């Protein structure tokens, strides 16, 4: 079962907003990084890498296809054994 | 194989733009130069080992270009993108065909700061691959040229030329060859250099004992060079660029020979030369360069060394020298139709002479 604390969610959202150059109110849990926020593959890798650095986790690249929006990222992070 | 005729009639410089320690744009640059105003200022604590530098005042990529697409952009890229933007506005970018417009940017290592930051991340992170991927495009030396093309939609040949202080003039030569071999119709070319703690550190530690640390400057100058017919008379015409190598330490003779080759190729009489600008490199090599120009041409105070005003701008120096010559020519109508010479020397041994006819 995915477990991401509200604090972690806040941190993750902050990282994503920073990389996608968005304000917090411009992004929703289910808005799509690529389709709705003009992200390219480079931005997606930046998100993955920045989450690894800040949350001290290792995310498999095979998880990238799930990380299409904030909800997907919360799930991926929640499923990582820490 | 296309053959390039180095003695052809010349290529038009149809526009130029500059970002310098005087600020953004040609007018502040012209005013500052005409007034002979120096730009050396104390730098803030932690900005580098030296106490002073000539910085582009208040330049911040995000403030100048907006917040979109600039999060990781380094200073040198910001200056190049912004200066190319100014150049395109001046040219009227709707008159350029993006597919046949090329871009050539001179540099030394791109951004020493970005390269070092990236390497540091790998060495100090928990894992060597825990690096900031957003830095990668800017930690390679062609980051600025690539980003300029992406930002402004310029789709022709895209080249980065790394040649130290000679980079700006060699970029012009590269652009000239692209045009003469019909690889492009117009080429936006020039050079950019940023001030950073990393560059200041490298400069201080690599300066020879005969040429102690110069005051560092930064900036970017970009020119539009075209083989296409222009509606208006060109601001200047690029007549020749000659490059050679000084391998025996005799900078005076090498510079002199290089300049003589350029004037001979273009059929220019030395007595007609209106202005000359040496690189202003520190130490005996720079003095020899200046002496060679002084002996070749009778110029008086029209032997202009901008390094004294805007600092040692390394990779951007040749481009900023040419910008200075064009700017001073603009203020002096008697320069019309007369030739001017810009030279550059680099510790690596490169000597370049560039000859233009003023508009």
TrEMBL record, chain A:
<dbReference type="InterPro" id="IPR036736">
    <property type="entry name" value="ACP-like_sf"/>
</dbReference>
<protein>
    <submittedName>
        <fullName>Acyl carrier protein</fullName>
    </submittedName>
</protein>
<dbReference type="Pfam" id="PF00550">
    <property type="entry name" value="PP-binding"/>
</dbReference>
<feature type="domain" description="Carrier">
    <location>
        <begin position="6"/>
        <end position="82"/>
    </location>
</feature>
<dbReference type="InterPro" id="IPR009081">
    <property type="entry name" value="PP-bd_ACP"/>
</dbReference>
UniProtKB/TrEMBL annotation, chain B:
<dbReference type="InterPro" id="IPR014030">
    <property type="entry name" value="Ketoacyl_synth_N"/>
</dbReference>
<dbReference type="InterPro" id="IPR000794">
    <property type="entry name" value="Beta-ketoacyl_synthase"/>
</dbReference>
<keyword id="KW-0808">Transferase</keyword>
<dbReference type="Pfam" id="PF00109">
    <property type="entry name" value="ketoacyl-synt"/>
</dbReference>
<dbReference type="InterPro" id="IPR016039">
    <property type="entry name" value="Thiolase-like"/>
</dbReference>
<feature type="domain" description="Beta-ketoacyl synthase-like N-terminal">
    <location>
        <begin position="12"/>
        <end position="226"/>
    </location>
</feature>
<protein>
    <submittedName>
        <fullName>Beta-ketoacyl synthase N-terminal-like domain-containing protein</fullName>
    </submittedName>
</protein>
